[in-house]
Amino acid sequence: MKAITFVFEKIKVGLKKLAEFFAFLFNWDDILDMRTVLLQVVDVGIETLGEALNIFGKAAVNWFDELDEQLAAMDVPDSPKNHNISPNEPAENEHSNSLDSPGGNWTNY
Fold first, then answer.
1. Which residues contact 96 (CB under 8 A, 6 or more apart)?
2. Most trustworthy range by pLDDT among 48-52, 63-67, 105-109
3. Helix, strand, or coil here: 25?
4. Between the CA of residue 89 and those of 35, 86, 92, 99, 102, what are the distances in Å?
5. Contact 98/104 with Cβ under 8 angstroms?
6. Do the beta carbons of residue 108 and residue 99 sit within 8 Å?
7. pLDDT digits (tens, 9 = 90+) for 1-55
């Protein structure tokens, strides 16, 4: 009988130590503190992102406005239907003979 009591006492001590280890490992107060810290980090990140969007948003709007002005100043045909280019007609740019080179021919494959 003493042997069984001894074994159960050892199991009880082992379970108590295991429970204390899990209580230390999963300390609820530490978990709550970590949650609070993570919430603060996310809140600060969102606030910083909002400020950055205000700053860079204005710069982006200005950039798009300038791009719109540049595109409006370009001479772009209204429609490709207005241009009659025959296959035998030479192109009018400096790259017209680029397909006659080995590199230009290779890109056609």
1. 90
2. 63-67
3. helix
4. 72, 5, 9, 15, 22
5. yes
6. yes
7. 677 777 777 777 777 887 787 777 777 778 788 889 999 999 999 999 888 888 8
Query: 105 and 99 in contact (C-beta within 8 Å)?
Result: yes
> How far apart, in whole angstroms, are the C-alpha atoms of residue 42 and residue 34?
12
> Who contacts 26 (Cβ-Cβ below 8 Å, separation ≥6)?
none
Question: Which residue's structure tokens are 């919430």?
Answer: 39
* In the block, residue with structure tokens 């204005």: 58
**8 A C-beta contact, residue 62 and residue 68:** no
| Whole-structure pTM value | 0.36
Rounded to the nearest 10°, the torsion over CA 55, 59, 61, 62 is 140
